[in-house]
Design goal:
The chain is α+β, with helices and mostly antiparallel strands. Helix content is 55%, strand content 11%. The protein has two domains: 1-102, PDZ domain (Pdz3 Domain, Roll), CATH 2.30.42; 105-236. Helix 3 runs parallel beside helix 5 (177-205) and helix 4 (145-168) packs antiparallel against helix 5 (177-205).
Amino acid sequence: MMLILVGMWLFVGGRAEGGILSGAWFTPDSTTVTVLSVTPRSPAGQAGLRPGDVVYAMDGQLVGSPNLLDQELEMSLSTGHSVLLDILRAGRRNSVWVRMPKLPLSTKRFLKVYAPIRAQWDQMVSCWEGIRSSYRATRTGVYTKEEFYAHILEAGNRFQDIRNQLIETVIPWESGEAWREMGRAKELMEWTALVMEEGAQQLGKTSEEGTIRRRMDTVRKVRSDVEKHLTMAVRAMGLEQSDFFVETWPR
């Protein structure tokens, strides 16, 4: 039986897998970080994290959003660090340790590169979704055009920063499908950053529905391509096998 070990992004808006190491799903698009589901026998499951738990701090630092927690949790685990989560359960405070499973050296090398690239992708998607939300808020009169233009400028700068970081990121010359797929994903992410930046600028210039719909479709297509290659890279490393944590989790 194959069971994908994922976090908050699987089946949420069609994004690529997240939470590969933690095995925890969080409620999406919320300021309150609530555990939606936990993969059995994953690090989160072994730690005792339960659906309905509200995570309010990680290693003593307040948690800002589900997206940020997912990124920080995966980054910490991928570098071999255990994480202390402070939670509220049925109104009572509690703490759980999410410990790093023992991983093959090849998997550790892969995750060391994959984790920051995945974090950059999550930032790009979050920035684009923020632009879409601001556009809708401007159309309904919640935001002024000036506020929307300021958001477009800020987002454009962020897309440029992420693209520059991606260009400077070097994918190791490793053999295997996982590394090839991650290289393809990184190249597509560089292109997608440009597409998203141009799309944001276009939203600020036109209100013509056909033009906006075509731009949205373009972004949706390149997003799908990136997510496909990220997913294929993860699967090529065998990180979706149901017995992965059963075999490697220290008993």
